[in-house]
Design goal:
With 258 residues, the chain is an alpha/beta fold. It is built from twelve helices and ten strands. The chain binds acetoacetyl-coenzyme A. Could possibly oxidize fatty acids using specific components.
């Protein structure tokens, strides 16, 4: 079993909660943190007792980026040979729904990690930014692609080229975050949303996530066909029978595959 030194891992009912825990470095995402986070959430993905995951940081920082001190002295061949950041691809392949609960700084890799989650709930003190340009680099964990898809070219260019931070309100207005809540409630609100998701059929939630993600990978006609085929396939599941029977019988559904 992996020993977790940089994250705290808990389970609340059917919800997994992972808290980044490197306060001395504002939760900078070094390789150990990436490996531990990916291992913890991969285990939750496979655990039938977990239906959704929340990832959070501290009240001051969700994460202040990739670990600059760990990268500073690396050469090109080191970065290439290690395929630096490749581990994050495993995070993006998770099938379980993942919510980012962001308080404080979500910068560089921190903003990119939040964007790798399925949606972001932000505290009103949240600050998002891609300040890599100030370090003589550019985003390296998918920021130039995911931020552009989330907020459009104008704002992505503005943030990535100037390195300026945006607050929670601007982030919500731009479509980067799904809701803004008082900072002190951000984890609680994310846990509540995760509980709602975890009360549904887990395979159906996973398929719904896959269908939304297809919007980013395919054209409209292909994406709509993908969605319709999944929709048809669900009529082979007990959970569809139960969900629709419960509606007709005016009761709450009891899903089998949770
Ligand atoms: N990597 C390593 N250490 C970091 C860090 C990071 N990304 N961010 C903060 N820290 C460390 C600081 O070095 C400091 O450590 P020491 O006490 O040992 O000096 C500690 O965390 C506290 O930070 P500050 O004293 O700087 O705190 P502050 O409140 O004055 O400022 C901040 C907060 C504005 C977030 C500032 O820390 C900051 O600018 N951090 C870097 C942000 C950044 O550039 N992120 C992008 C990283 S590169 C990247 O992420 C690449 C990619 O695309 C994946």
């Amino acid at each position: 079993m992996t020993e977790y030194t940089n994250i705290l891992v808990e389970q609340r009912g059917r919800v997994g909660l992972v808290t980044l825990n490197r306060p001395e470095a504002l939760n900078a995402l070094d390789k150990a943190t990436m490996d531990q986070l990916v291992a913890a959430v991969t285990a939750m993905d496979a655990d039938p007792g977990v239906g959704a995951v929340v990832i959070t940081g501290s009240s001051k920082a969700f994460a202040a980026g990739a670990d600059i001190k760990e990268m500073a002295s690396q050469g090109y061949m080191d970065m290439y040979a290690a395929d630096w950041f490749r581990g994050w691809e495993d995070f993006t392949r998770l099938r379980i729904p993942v919510i980012a609960a962001v308080s404080g700084f979500a910068l560089g890799g921190g903003c990119e990690l939040a964007m790798m989650c399925d949606f972001i709930i932000a505290g009103d003190n949240a600050k998002f930014g891609q300040p890599e340009i100030n370090l003589g680099v550019l985003p390296g964990m998918g920021g130039s692609q995911r931020l552009t898809r989330a907020v459009g070219k104008a704002k992505a260019m503005d943030m990535i080229l100037t390195g300026r931070f945006i607050g929670a309100e601007e982030a919500e207005r731009s479509g980067l975050v799904s809701r803004v809540v008082p900072a002190e409630n951000v984890v609680e609100e994310a846990l509540k949303a995760a509980e709602v998701i975890a009360s549904k059929s887990k395979p159906v939630a996973m398929l719904a996530k896959e269908a939304v993600n297809a919007a980013f990978e395919t054209g409209l006609a292909q994406g709509v066909l993908f969605e319709r085929r999944i929709f048809h396939s669900l009529f082979a599941s007990e959970d569809q029978k139960e969900g629709m029977a419960a509606f007709t019988e005016k009761r709450q559904p009891e899903f089998t595959h949770r």
